[in-house]
Design goal:
This is Sulfotransferase domain-containing protein. One of its GO terms (molecular function) is N-acetylglucosamine 6-O-sulfotransferase activity. One of its GO terms (biological process) is N-acetylglucosamine metabolic process. By secondary structure, the chain is of the alpha/beta class. The chain is built from 20 helices and 5 strands. The radius of gyration is 29 Å and the shape is globular.
C-alpha cells in the first residue's frame, strides 16, 4: 500500500536529529548572550541626557565600564585646579579701589583652602536683565555660578514665611558649597538641566562626566575650588536678603537690578510660563514688589554702603561697557579680556529666541514703546504710579508720546 513508503526513522537518524537541535539551541543562546553584551557596552552618551536617565544606570556600571567615583572626582578636581591656576592665579588683578581687594591673595579665597570666596548676589525679578548681568559676572575666570537656585519653587515670589525659611536655607547651603542636604534641588535639576547649564565651568564637566553631575559628594568639592561665586535670584524679594548680609562668614555683596515695569510686562508677554501666574502676570503685584524693594534698598544702602548697590537695567544697557566696569569694581572682579569679549558678542546684535542674551543693548529695554498698545501702557501706569516715581521712570501721556519719549529720568541716585 502507498503508506508503506513512509518508514519508521532509524535509531541512528533519531540521534542525528537530536544533535542538530541541540547545536541550534546552543548557537541561539550564544548569539543572544553576545548581543546583550554589545548592547550593555555600547557608548551611550549620545543616547542619555545628563539628567535623570543617567541616574537610572546601575551604580556599579556606566557606559560599559565600572565606575570609580572617588577616582573620577579626583580626576575632575585636578583638571579644574590646573585650569584655575592657569586662568586666575597667575595673572589676576583686583580692582585698585577703596574696598581693599587689592591686598587679597587670591590663593586664599577658595573654600578648599579654608578661604572665603568673593560672593556676588544679583537680586531682580523675571525679565529684568538679570540673566545678562549674571553672565557678565560668570565671564570672569574662576567663577562658580549658582543660577536661579529657587527654580524648583515655581512661578512665585518669596516675600516672607512660610517660603522664606526654605529659600534662605537653599541660598546659604549653595553659597557654602553644601549640596548634601539639597535633595529636592538636585532632583529638580535632573529634569531641568538649565539649573546647571549657565554654570559653564560645572556644565563642561557634566557633559564629560555625566555620572558626577548631580552627585553631592562631587559638587561639594568642585564648588569649593573656586575663588569667586555668583548667584542671581528672581524669586526672592530684597528685604529677605538682609539676613544673608548680616552673616559675616558669607561676606556677600548684593546688587539689586530694577527695570521699567512696562518693559518687564512687555517681555513677560512672550513667555509661555507667565500668563495666568499671578506673581508674574499681575502688574499690581509687580509694582508692589518694586516699591517694597525701593524701601529695602534705602535701608540697606545706609546699613551696608560698601556691600549693597541698586541699578536700573536701562542705565547699564545704554552703556554696557561702562556699566560692567562699574559693577565688576563693586564686586571686586577684574574687567579683563574675557569680560570684554562677552560684551563684544552679546550687546551689538539680536540673535536667538526670547531667552537669548544676544541683544542690541541700547534698543532692548525700550521695545515696549512699540510692542504694547497705549491702553496696555495706561493700565500698567495706573497700577505702578509709586514704583515708577521712586525708580525714576517717565509716564507716557498719549500714543504719540509713547513712541518717542525717553522713559528714564537721567542721573538717577538712590536716596
Amino acid at each position: 500500500m502507498r503508506y508503506n513508503k513512509f518508514k519508521e526513522p532509524s535509531q541512528g537518524g533519531k540521534k542525528c536529529s537530536t544533535y542538530v537541535i541541540a547545536i541550534i539551541i546552543l548557537l541561539c543562546l550564544i548569539s543572544f548572550l553576545f548581543s546583550e553584551s554589545i548592547v550593555t557596552t555600547l557608548p551611550s552618551t549620545h543616547l542619555l541626557g545628563v539628567g535623570r536617565s543617567i541616574q537610572s544606570l546601575s551604580s556599579n556600571e556606566i557606559i560599559g565600564e565600572p565606575v570609580n567615583l572617588t577616582r573620577d572626582i579626583e580626576v575632575v578636581l585636578q583638571e579644574q585646579r590646573r585650569t584655575i591656576n592657569a586662568e586666575v592665579l597667575r595673572n589676576y588683578t583686583f580692582p585698585d579701589e577703596k574696598l581693599n581687594f587689592s591686598d587679597i591673595d587670591i590663593r586664599n579665597l577658595s573654600p578648599e583652602n579654608n578661604g572665603t570666596p568673593i560672593r556676588s548676589v544679583i537680586v531682580a525679578t523675571w525679565r529684568s536683565g538679570s540673566t545678562f548681568l549674571g553672565d557678565v559676572l560668570n565671564s570672569v575666570p574662576g567663577n562658580f555660578y549658582h543660577y536661579e537656585p529657587l527654580l524648583d519653587h515655581g512661578i512665585v515670589q518669596v516675600r516672607g514665611p512660610p517660603l522664606a525659611n526654605n529659600a534662605l536655607n537653599y541660598i546659604s547651603n549653595l553659597l557654602n558649597c553644601n549640596y548634601t542636604d539639597m535633595e529636592n534641588y538636585l532632583l529638580y535639576g535632573q529634569d531641568h538641566n538649565w539649573l546647571f547649564t549657565h554654570n559653564t565651568r560645572l556644565w563642561e564637566k557634566c557633559l564629560l562626566y555625566p555620572h558626577l553631575c548631580w552627585n553631592p559628594q562631587f559638587l561639594n568639592k568642585f564648588c569649593a575650588l573656586f575663588p569667586f561665586q555668583s548667584m542671581k535670584l528672581v524669586r526672592l524679594r530684597l528685604h529677605l536678603i538682609e539676613e544673608l548680609l548680616e552673616d559675616p562668614k558669607l561676606g556677600i555683596r548684593v546688587l539689586l537690578v530694577v527695570r521699567d515695569p512696562r518693559g518687564i510686562m512687555q517681555s513677560r508677554k512672550h513667555r509661555d510660563w507667565c500668563p495666568g501666574q499671578p506673581d508674574c502676570w499681575d502688574p499690581t503685584l509687580l509694582c508692589a514688589d518694586l516699591t517694597a524693594d525701593y524701601s529695602a534698598a534705602i535701608r540697606l544702602k545706609k546699613k551696608y554702603p560698601d556691600r549693597f548697590r541698586a541699578v536700573r537695567y536701562e542705565d547699564i544697557s545704554l552703556n554696557p561697557y561702562k556699566g560692567a566696569q562699574s559693577l565688576l569694581k563693586f564686586f571686586g572682579r577684574h574687567y579683563g579680556p574675557n569680560v570684554k569679549r562677552y560684551l563684544d558678542t552679546h550687546t551689538k546684535r539680536n540673535a536667538g529666541g526670547v531667552s537669548s542674551t544676544f541683544r542690541n543693548s541700547r534698543a532692548a529695554p525700550f521695545h515696549w514703546r512699540s510692542d504694547l498698545s497705549h491702553s496696555e501702557v495706561l493700565s500698567i501706569q495706573r497700577k505702578c504710579v509709586t514704583a515708577m516715581s521712586v525708580w525714576g521712570y517717565v509716564k507716557a501721556h498719549n500714543a504719540t508720546h509713547q513712541k518717542t519719549l525717553d522713559p528714564i529720568k537721567k542721573n538717577f541716585i538712590l536716596d
